[in-house]
Amino acid sequence: MSAGVGLSTPGPASERPGASRPRSWSLPVPEGAYGPIVAWRGREHWLAALTAALGTPEGEAARASRKVARRTLLAIAAEYAERADVATGRSVTVAHDTVGGAVERCAKTIQRATRTLEALGFAATVAEGRYLYADEREAARALHQSVQLRAASVLALTLPAVDKSSVNTKNVHLPVNAQNPLSTYEFSLEQTRASAQSEAAPRPEPGRKKGDPVKHVRPVPQVRAITRQRFLAQLDRHYGNALARGRHIGQIDQLLRRAGVAESWSLGELTQRIAGRFPAAHEKLHTAEDPLRYFAWMIRQTIEPGETPPAVASDKRARELQAQRAQAAREREAERQRRASLSPGEFARIRAESDAAIRARDEARRRERATSPRAISDVLLASAGMLLSSPRRSRTSTKRCSTCTRF
Q1: The overall pTM is greater than 0.85
Q2: Tens-place pLDDT, residues 129-179
Q3: CA nearest neighbour of 37 among 157, 152, 117
Q4: Distance between terminal CA atoms of the chain?
Q5: Which residues lie across from 30 on neighbouring strands?
């Protein structure tokens, strides 16, 4: 270590006052590092204060932002408290792997839990863990007769400070027990009673009796299929990643749904339709202030809400024609089976009746055409047309022929 830096004497925890168990060689703590850190009032009191803090909105927010379960955080805090100095809560030098093995969690979870304790004000790091220098490795070997390459961070378990400027003491009249005075954190819990007097109590919801549990309905998260996610990613990539620009790709899906674009549209059909209406769509999107809103406007100008894609429409027509052909084939097959089931005599009788009906129908049509006035006029007009269309006979010319003398 370099000279001139004021450091406390390093050593094992078993040589320090209040230590509960022997430990490896720990990093030296700079002088004065423990000065601004409040000492705890005991292991049980520290754990109780931490449990109460986790029940507040601030505690829930700090824990949820780092994705640490409440039960896991309390178990890790109990391991830290077990290894802390009994009188002050300082000198916690246990490694993350050691705590993780005790609570059956990984080192990353221990690290997130430690950051949560620091954010809530229940722990402070006074020396960051690191690899040891050569002289420090020699000191560690002399201490426990084994090789030690790294040392864990040195923590101090503390209590969160109270902001006295925000405490409303005008209406606070709490009795003080001389035998068990209020601690710093207990007083901070009582302050909520005074601050709550400035706001009206919430009224129960209509139709719900006082005392009934409030039902919180969580929105069901929308799960997009992997094919839909690929389509959205390909659409964004087609326009040079100009649509998302740091936004969640689900916003493109919401845009398409609001515009009435069905999921049956393929990437090629959608981009070709937009390119036909806006040939410079790529350049416009890259220069637009809000490309997503501009893309929504282009969609509304190009595609009608609920419009069927061309491929789907053609497939629908093809399916309809196929269904009609299949129905006609079924009818022909049914007629063939019906005829096959008839006897020769019965088939001949039915055939004769059908031929007689056809002849009677044709005869009725001929009589109707012969007796109708329109038929007579049609005949007269046809005759006149024939006369008009026949060539006229030319008169004999009296002009003298140029080659002979006959007239």
Answers
A1: no
A2: 888 888 888 888 888 888 888 888 899 999 987 654 444 444 444 444 444
A3: 157
A4: 149
A5: 7
